[in-house]
Amino acid sequence: MLPADLRSAEAQLLAALQAALAAEPAGRWTVELRFEGLRLLPVALRLAAALASEREDASLLLPDAGAAALARRDAPDLATPIASFSDQLRRQGEAGSEGLLLLVAPSQAEYDSVEGLCGRHRGPVVLLNPALEDAAVGIGSVARQRRRGFLSQWEAAYALIPQAESALRRAYPSPWQLYRLDPDGYRLAAEFDQRPDGEQQAEALGAQAGLGGNLRALGDLIEGLQN
């Protein structure tokens, strides 16, 4: 079911992430809230606080020192350690690290840092709104190598992605769900075992639109026969 607002979405996200971490305690998970204009840091701080209330080994990591300082300013009482990606790499050293890491908005520019950080970490890692794939290398050998290797390790614990006339959602362990926007709200159009690409979504939405039209035509025919 689609959430009614951001806080409801965050509650769904936390429940799905908890289920994912219970199933794979050292897994590699992503969580996504792709609302336009979303202020991500408050969401990250609330999620970090919820995780820290359950486990003492959770850390909140941001792309750079400036973002980490801003997070510490906005959440001075947060027990969760807050640091930058590079800070965490220095902490790990050669021994590596354990515990839960929550990385906020890692981009393609931080790809090498994130890959190195995860390679020396033995605990679970969660990426919040990652953008590690670069469209500029999307069809090249570098992209293929990354997809076969590091990027293939990740599974979506939660995703909520509003689109022009639809919405895509996944809450672990349920399948991916595609909702169609109708005049009176959203309706479930299709479910997928794997994240559907644009073509799969268009096909499912087109099939649903055609079915709806056929049903309306059948309804009109029945009504005409009864009059």
Structural write-up:
This protein has helices at 6-23, 40-52, 65-74, 85-92, 111-119, 141-148, 198-226; strands spanning 28-33, 58-62, 82-84, 100-104, 125-128, 155-162, 166-171, 176-182, 185-192. It is 42% helix and 23% strand. The protein has a 9-stranded mixed beta sheet. The chain has 227 residues and is α/β, with parallel strands linked by helices. It has 7 helices and 9 strands. The longest helix has 29 residues, at 198-226. β6 (155-162) and β7 form a beta hairpin. The chain is globular. α4 (85-92) runs parallel beside α5 (111-119).
Blueprint of the fold:
Layout: H1 6-23, E1 28-33, H2 40-52, E2 58-62, H3 65-74, E3 82-84, H4 85-92, E4 100-104, H5 111-119, E5 125-128, H6 141-148, E6 155-162, E7 166-171, E8 176-182, E9 185-192, H7 198-226
Parallel strand pairs: 1-5, 1-6, 2-3, 2-4, 4-5
Antiparallel strand pairs: 6-7, 7-8, 8-9
